[in-house]
Amino acid sequence: MVYQRETRGQNFYTLDTNLQALLRRLAPDAADRWHSSLTDFGAWVAREVDEAAEHTDRHAPPVLDNYTRDGQHVNRIRHNPLWDRVAREVYEKGAIGLNYGPDPAPFVVTFAMGYLLSEADVALHCPVTMTGAVAYVLDRFAPAAVRETYLHQLTRRDGKALSGGTWATELHGGSDVGATTTIAHREDDHHRLTGLKWFTSNANGGLAVATARPEGAPEGSKGLGLYLVPTHLADGSPNPMRIRRLKSKLGTVGIPTGEIDLTATWAKEVAPPPIGFKLMMEALGFSRIHNAVGSAGLARRAFLEAASYLSHRNAFGHPVLDYPMMRDELLKMMTRLESSAALAFAAAAAFDAAHVTDLDAEDGKRAWLRMVTALAKYQSADDANILARMAIELIGGNAYTYDYVTPRLLRDAQVLTVWEGPANIQALEVLRMIGNRAPGFTAFESRVQQVLGGAPDGLGALAAPLGRAAAQCREAVDYVRRAPDQAPVHARKLMALLADTLGGVLLFEEAAADWRRGDARKALIARAYIEERLTARPDHRGIGPGSDWAHRHFEPLFQYVEIPIRPGILGSG
Fold first, then answer.
1. What topology is assigned to 164-276 in CATH?
2. Contact 184, 193 (CB under 8 A)
3. How many Cβ atoms are within 10 Å of 435's Cβ, its own excluded?
4. DSSP of 521-533
5. In the prediction, which pLDDT does 536 show?
6. Cα distances (angstroms) measured from residue 147 to each of 24, 69, 358
7. Is the peptide bond before 274 cis (omega within 30 degrees of 0)?
8. Which residues pair with 229 in a beta bridge?
C-alpha cells in the first residue's frame, strides 16, 4: 500500500484492505456482488462528501428560519448547496435502498457504507443511520398499511427519498425513555401527539418515529406506543409542530439537531403499548451498530491521516517513519483500529444472522446480537476518540488547525460515545444479558470457544492468553451473579473486560483464517493487541529484551501486505 500525501480524492474502499478482507470473510458473496457499489461509494465519500463536510463545518452550518417575512411561523431549515447535494446522493447510491426491493443486499453491505461515510462525515452518517432504523422498523414490524404507504419513501433511489429520525429523548428523561411525557390522543384513524422532544437530530428529515403515551396508558415504558410522524401531511402542508431552536453542538455541525414542540401533531400508530417501547429499542439497537461501524470508520480516517502525513515528512535529517517512537504509536493505532473494525462488523454480521421479526424471541442468535452490539458500540466509540487524539499528536501543530480534517474528527468522535446510549447504558445492557436466566454470556462463551477451539497449529502462543482472559470473564460474571447488589458497582469494568477479550478473540479468528493461507500479518496484530490489552505486565511495562519484536515487522504491518509464516515468528520475534 502506498500512502499518498493527501487522503482526499482517493478511494476509501479500495485503500482499505482490512475492510475488504472483513467483508470477504463475513459475506463473501455480498463482497463480490456489491464490490462495484462499494468502490463507487468509497470514491464518492473521499471527494464530494469530504469537501461538503469541510465547507459545512467551517463556513455554512444549517440555519433555522422561524418566520417568513410576513410573520408566518415556519419550520424551515436551510442547508448549503453542497450539503443538499450529498444528502440527496447518499440515498441514490443505495445507503438505505440496497437493503430493500426484489434483490436486497445484506445489511453488512450498507453497514460498510456507514463505515466509509464516517471517514468523511459523521454528520451525514447520522441521518443515514436514523433513516435505516426507521425503514427497518417499518419493514419488519409496522402494520401493512403503514408499511406500504411509507417504506418506499425512505428506500427509493431516484433522488426524492425522505430521511428519518428517532425522537425518544425528552428534557427530563435523557436515556430514561420510559419517563416520556408526550401524550398521544386518538383521532379517527390517526393520533395527535403533544409534548416536547429535546434531541431531534435530522429535525427536517421527513419521517420520524416518536415515543408517546396514549391517554390512559400506564406509567413507565410499558405504557408507550410508537408513532410515525411526517414533517408534512399528505396534501403537502406542514404537520403542526414547532422547532424551538437548533442545538449549538461540539461537533456533527452539518446535521441539524432541534428541540421540537409537538403541538397536536398528526401521527400514524406503528405499535401500541407495550410494544411501542420495544420497537424504539429495536430502532436504537440498529443505530448502535451503525454507531460502531461509524466509530471504526472515523478511527480509520484518523489513522490514514497520520500515516499519510508521516510517510511524507522528514525531521532532523531522517524520514519520520524511521523513528521507533513514531512506529510504536502507529502500531498502536493499527491495533486499535483493526480490533474496533472486527467488533463492529461482528455486530453487523450478527444483525443479518439474527433477522429479528419476533420481539420476544431470545434465541442464541438474538442474544449474541445484543451482547456484541453493546460491546462493539462501547469499545469502538472509545477507540475512535483515542485515535483522533493520537492523529493530532503524531502530526503535530498542523493537525490542530482547520487546514486538516483532524480537528473535526476529534470533535465528531465525541458524539459517538453518547449517541444511542453512552457507556453506562451499554453496561446496563450487558448486565441484563448476563443475568442468571439471560442467554447473553452463554452466547459470548460459545463464540469464544468456537474460535479458540478451531485454532490452527502454530497459534497456541495467542490462544493461551485469550483462554485465560475468557476464564477471567467467567469468574467476573459468576461473581456479579452471586452478588447482584455489587453488579452495578462493577458493570463498566466488567463490560471493558468482556470487550477487551472479545476484541482479541475476533482478531484471533481473522488471524487463524489468514494463517491457514500462509499469512502471519493478522497474527502479529493479534499478538500486539494481546500484549497491550490482555496480558498482565510487570512494572517495566514491556521494556526489556525481546519487546521490540513488532518493529522488526513494521513495514509489512504498516503496508498491509502478507507476512510469510516462518518458525518462531510469534515467539521472540
1. Butyryl-CoA Dehydrogenase, subunit A; domain 2 (2.40.110)
2. yes
3. 15
4. HHHHHHHHHHHHH
5. 58
6. 33, 38, 17
7. yes
8. 208
pLDDT at position 172: 76
DSSP state of 519: B
Q: What is the mean pLDDT of the chain?
A: 94
Separation in Å, CA 476 to CA 380, 443, 484? 22, 16, 12
| C-alpha to C-alpha distance for 252 and 130, rounded to whole angstroms | 14
Residues whose CB falls within 8 Å of the CB of residue 512, separated by 6 or more in sequence, listed in order = 451, 454, 455, 456, 459
Nearest Cα neighbor of 123 from 300, 297, 342, 373 is 297
DSSP 352-383: HHH----TT---HHHHHHHHHHHHHHHHHHHH
Q: How far apart are CA 568 and CA 566, in angstroms?
A: 6
DSSP-derived secondary structure for 15-62 = T-HHHHHHHHHH-HHHHHHTHHHHHHHHHHIIIIIHHHHHHHHHT---
For residue 192, what is the enclosing H or E element?
strand 190-201
The C-alpha cell 409534548 sits at: 195
DSSP β-ladder status, 183-187 and 63-67: unpaired
DSSP string, 216-270: TPPSSGGG-EEEEEESB-TTSPBPSEEEEEE---SS-TTS-EEEEEEEEEEEEEE
Q: Contact 130/287 with Cβ under 8 angstroms?
A: yes
The beta strands (E) that lie in 278-339 are given as 314-315, 318-319
CB 4 within 8 A of CB 12: no
State the residue for C-alpha cell 507476512.
563
CB 377 within 8 A of CB 455: no
Task: Point out which residues pair with 242 in neighbouring strands.
Answer: 261
Peptide bond just before 102 cis, omega within 30 deg: no
Helix, strand or coil, per DSSP, at residue 64: strand
Cell triple for 427: 453496561
Query: What is the distance between the alpha carbons of residues 314 and 159, in angstroms, rounded to a whole number?
Result: 47
Identify the CA nearest to 19 among candidates 410, 340, 311: 340
CA dist list (Å): 448 to 26, 34, 438: 17, 30, 18
Q: What is the pLDDT of residues 296-346, one digit of tens each?
A: 999 999 999 999 999 999 999 999 999 999 999 999 999 999 999 999 999
Question: Which element (helix H / strand E) includes 331?
Answer: helix 324-354
Q: Is 166 helix (H, G, I), strand (E, B) or coil?
A: strand
Residue 15, amino acid: L
Nearest to 291 by CA among 525, 481, 130, 182: 130
**Residue 540 pLDDT exceeds 80:** no
Query: Distance of alpha carbon 458 from its chain centroid, rounded?
Result: 34
CA distance 456 to 365: 26
Bridge partners, residue 209, by sequence: 166, 228
Where in the chain are the domains? 164-276, 455-559
Task: State the pLDDT at residue 502.
Answer: 98
Strand partners, 173: none
Helix 324-354 and helix 107-120: axis angle, to 10°?
150
User: What's the rounded Cα separation, in Å, for the pair 99 and 110?
Assistant: 7
* Beta-ladder partners of 194: 183, 263
